[in-house]
Specification:
By secondary structure, this protein is mostly helical. It has a domain of about 170 residues. The protein is built from twelve helices and two strands, in the order E-H-E-H-H-H-H-H-H-H-H-H-H-H. It has a two-stranded antiparallel sheet with strand order 1-2. Helix 1 crosses helix 3, helix 2 crosses helix 5 and helix 9 packs across helix 11. It starts with 9 loop residues before the first strand and ends in a 5-residue tail after the last helix.
Length: about 250
């Protein structure tokens, strides 16, 4: 098991978030540094979230994939939204959850060290255009918006199944709110690029250049459509029909 589900949900205060940021920075020079044992429950660093009937924190297995992780935590987050938790509480909640599930989103390697990615993967950014990178907030946002249709983004490739990862596809789409918040666009992406057998993206869908029919080209075409249509209101099937068939037709086969 990754974590004990015996601690009530808490949120870091400003001192706690500062301490959390310091720990993440320290890992670059001391990758075997243990998570401070008192970090999660120290009342000087965090406070318990007060709401009725908050679901218990889940114990996840080490091999939990990102879709399972996001779907497992989504009822908790949905409950907090419905409980109208204060906006100012959310950065502290996201970061406390990142610390609680740190062994999943930044796992220990065989030699006892960690290999953290960018700070914003674990410390919730004040910049709205970086918040999708947070490995708790980002995947849960996608799942709450799109449910199982978020599968393509969260389980893009075999290398990006882990909650500790972010695929190029997830980065490409989640970084653009006009794309990531549209059910029609996410549905169209699934129709084009989800392998129905493997449950991951089709080979060649992501390219470093804007090759015809690839994800980057899809993003460009959606940008062009936005000048004429309200793409947030167009169903997936209608969006697919609007795409240039010579370029995107092969992905529907």
């Amino acid at each position: 098991m990754i974590a004990k589900a015996s601690i009530p949900l808490r949120a870091f205060n400003e001192a706690g978030r500062q301490k959390w940021n310091e720990y993440i920075r320290s890992l670059k020079n001391t990758p075997d540094l243990d998570l401070p044992p008192s970090l999660l429950e120290d009342e000087a660093l965090s406070y318990q979230i007060q709401a009725d009937d908050i679901p218990e924190l889940i114990n996840f297995q080490p091999d939990t994939n990102k879709l399972e992780f996001a779907s497992g935590l989504s009822p908790l987050i949905q409950h907090l939204y419905q409980s109208r938790i204060e906006t100012d509480d959310w950065p502290g909640i996201w970061d406390w959850l990142a610390a609680y599930y740190f062994d999943l989103i930044c796992p220990l390697k065989a030699d006892g060290t960690r290999a953290p990615k960018g700070k914003e993967w674990y410390a919730y950014s004040e910049a709205y255009n970086r918040q999708y990178k947070h490995r708790i907030a980002g995947p849960i946002d996608l799942y709450l918006r799109h449910g199982e249709d978020a599968k393509l983004l969260l389980l893009s490739t075999k290398k990006s199944l882990s909650p500790a990862s972010q695929s190029q596809l997830e980065d490409e789409i989640a970084s653009r709110q006009e794309l990531s918040r549209s059910t029609g666009i996410i549905g169209a992406l699934n129709r084009l690029y989800l392998d129905p057998v493997l449950g991951t993206q089709k080979g060649g869908a992501v390219a470093n250049t804007k090759k015809p029919g690839t994800i980057r080209r899809f993003c460009d075409v959606m940008g062009q459509f936005e000048r004429t249509f309200d793409t947030s209101e167009i169903p997936a099937d209608s969006l697919v029909e609007l795409l240039p068939s010579k370029e995107f037709g092969k992905w529907l086969k």
